[in-house]
Amino acid sequence: MIEGDWSYFIPVKLPVEWEYKGEPGIHPEIHGITGRNVVLLIEKRFTRIENIFARLLRAPKVVRRPMHYTQSMLWELMNGDRNFKEICEIMASLYHEEVSPVEDRMKSYLEVFVRLNVATVLKHREEE
Among 55, 56, 57, 119, which one is most buried in terms of CB atoms within 10 A? Predict the structure, then answer.
C-alpha cells in the first residue's frame, strides 16, 4: 500500500453508512469518541442475473459488517484531524498489549478499510 514513514499520514473515513451497536466500552476522554462497536452498512451491487436471484430469494440489499472493538475505536478516531502517529499513541494507551505492535496492527486495519473502500489515507501537506 503506502511505503515509507506513516507517522504523519492522515487516515480518513469515506462517506459510507455505519451505525453503533452495543454499550460504550473503553475510550479516551475525547469529545465524540464513544468506544461503542461500529457496524458498517455496505450496499450490495448485483449484476442483472444476480438481481433476479436476489429478488427471488429475498436477499438483503445491505451487508452489515460488524467490527472488532479495536477496529471500531480506530474508525472513531479517523476524523481527518489526527495523524497516524497520534492515533497509534491513543490506541496504545487504551489497549496496551492487545494492539502490540500498534503501528503494524493499525496499518493492517487501515489496509482492510482501504480495500473495502470505506477509508483512505492522505499524505500530510508539507508547510511551505
Answer: 119
